[in-house]
Amino acid sequence: MTPEALIDIFREALSVIVLLVSVIILPGLGIGLVVAVFQAATSINEQTLSFLPRLLMTLFALMMLGHWLVRTMMEFFVEMVNRIPQVIG
User: Fold this and answer.
1) What angle in degrees, to the nearest 10, is found between the helix axes of 3-42 and 47-82?
2) In a 10 Å sphere around its CB, with 0-12 CB exposed, 13-18 middle and 19+ buried, how is residue 10 labelled?
3) How large is the average pLDDT for residues 42-68?
4) Once rounded to an integer, what is the mean pLDDT over residues 30-55?
5) 24, 62 Cβ separation under 8 angstroms
6) How many CA atoms lie within 13 A of 88 on its CB side?
7) Spatial CB neighbours of 28, under 8 Å, sequence gap ≥ 6
């Protein structure tokens, strides 16, 4: 196995991880920003007010995109399993 092949596998793994995590995190980040602007505009300093919308948005994103997330992980796993002979030999 060449170092280039290992670097390619590592790069693909990192790109899949970043893609999957960003799909889950970014909607919650957007809602958190909206709630923070609302709190700043109304001078409401309640910590739980910002937590619940972010939690609900994260759960909603997981619910809506769960099938795509699992399919993406499975495609990456199948690709890695198919590369085993290339990596060993």
Assistant:
1) 160
2) exposed
3) 91
4) 89
5) yes
6) 6
7) 54, 55, 57, 58, 61
Pair of tokens at residue 87: 């990596």
Instruction: Give the global pTM.
Output: 0.80
CA pseudo-torsion sign 21, 61, 51, 39: positive
Q: Are the C-beta atoms of 53 and 32 separated by less than 8 Å? A: yes
- Helix H segments across 1-89? 3-42, 47-82, 84-88
| CA 49 to chain centroid | 24
The answer to whether residues 72 and 20 touch, using CB atoms and an 8 Å cutoff, is yes
Place of tokens 């290992």: 6
Residue 61 has pLDDT above 80, yes or no: yes
User: What Rg do the C-alpha atoms of the chain give, in angstroms?
Assistant: 19
Other beta carbons within 10 angstroms of residue 72's beta carbon come to 15
For the chain, give every domain's residue range. Answer: 3-82
